[in-house]
Amino acid sequence: xxxxxxxxxxxxxxxxxxxxxxxxxxxxxxxxxxxxxxxxxxxxxxxxxxxxxxxxxxxxxxxxxxxxxxxxxxxxxxxxxxxxxxxxxxxxxxxxxxxxxxxxxxxxxxxxxxxxxxxxxxxxxxxxxxxxxxxxxxxxxxxxxxxxxxxxxxxxxxxxxxxxxxxxxxxxxxxxxxxxxxxxxxxxxxxxxxxxxxxxxxxxxxxxxxxxxxxxxxxxxxxxxxxxxxxxxxxxxxxxxxxxxx
Length: 246
Prior knowledge:
This protein is an alpha/beta fold. The chain has one domain (12-216). Helix content is 21%, strand content 16%. The strands form two sheets. The protein has a seven-stranded parallel beta sheet with strand order 1-4-5-6-7-8-9. The protein has a two-stranded antiparallel ribbon with strand order 2-3. Strand 4 (71-74), helix 2 (87-99) and strand 5 (104-109) form a beta-alpha-beta unit. It is globular, with a radius of gyration of 17 Å.
């Protein structure tokens, strides 16, 4: 858990689970795996088991420790809807998010079908609370199929994280989507991102009146290429709120 995050679109991170397995091209150069594996077999280190999927129940109540409201990226070092995480455990994560409701939670997954099924089981007669934002990763046109599962989920705020953007996404169905984040890949093997792909997504968001956030161009380091798109920073969010974690 970190009460400060270098990720531009959030304030803090909360990891009741760490570790994951790769399922698509967007995972190829996973930053979380690269970081975790540096500490494999280091006795006593939180990542002594590297990037192996690990439940961390001792962290389930951590958001209660923060009294000031924050935007919290849930499982920045994992995927909450990984097939090997028991539903009962995911329910405990959602219990905390529902109770510590002065925060905004940003839940992001590549396992879109499992998100849809879980959310629609938990929220059968209503939508998920508005402070729990639900999103899917979309790295190229092939991954855009995840958007359909998100649109079918009983969510209030739905968002797309188009990062790393490694190919053109083509035309996106933004019906019911509140927010789109776009970013290039970073790290020693970062794949380049074409400006035309980004501008196309930005223009689709403008046309559909969807909030657009441009995170980074990427490169060897996250900040290598800066954040300007056609000379401007794009920092839109799906709702207006006071500055969090001040």
